[in-house]
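Sample pair:
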Amino acid sequence: MYLLLMLLYFIPHSVNSDGLIQNLPKKVEISIHSEKAYKILTYNVWGLPVFLPGHEDDLRFPSMADSIMKRQPDILCLQEVFSVYFRSQNLEKFKNQYHYGSDYNCSQSIIPFVYKDCHGGLATFSVFPIEEEKFYEYPVFPGMRWEEKIGAKGFLLTKIDLPSGKIWVVNTHLYSGPSRNDEAIRLSQIKYMMEVLEGLDLQLPIVMAGDFNIAHPGLSNNKMKFPNDVYSMLQSCWHFNDAVQHYSKAQQWYTIHPESNKYCNSSEGNQKLDYIFFKNQGKKCINILHNAVEMKGVATLSDHHAFASVFNLE
């Protein structure tokens, strides 16, 4: 019955969205950073479209926006905001303090009285004005699991006007799974993304953040082995830099960490699935000043930790 509900849930019957870009003035200034230093935070909030035992949505969701905003990000990239309940508890709080570029209240009906969002579970917010934004849904590739096909993942492309210059921000959520076929599908998704990015204004730097579901070649997992083709090709073929320059045994920047997160699946071990990448082009350059894993320990409100970077643009 659960599988049937999930299948029906993800089949959209109608879309309640005017498709227009929203860009409202921010009502409260929350940035604590200097004119040329900015904090970007990416967080998979685990807002699935249906209530499931053990997820504790009723405990997690009401305080999510307040807890995130205490971290004071200038740019916020969220994944898995599928849930109508999550959005009802948090969107207005984010809108009161951030610019936004899409109608994140938009929902698709799956079965009567069951809905999901219209942007692949993604939402991007910025303290600074948003000039344009568009959601790109990934194509269906051979070998995809049914729940991933109907999940309609993609990437949200946003142009943000920072005080020190404009940048592109890509917020994405890639295909999940540890197998070689899963990695091949993620690579196909990234290739599709890169085709879109090649048509952008090449004079602007790009920041790419999200739940990539990929493994770093230098990181160890204590339970499973993951291929790392996508990570390597992002650097070697498409010239993106990881915000973290150095990983070590002492600091592996795990965003999936069962020892400190009661919502994690302990059978999958320690993982870093959430990343921030950047690519410098044009006259302005991004420099990473600081990285941090956040929303962890007593602040845990998802099966993922958040990952954040502070950067300047010069």
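The chain has a mean pLDDT of 88.
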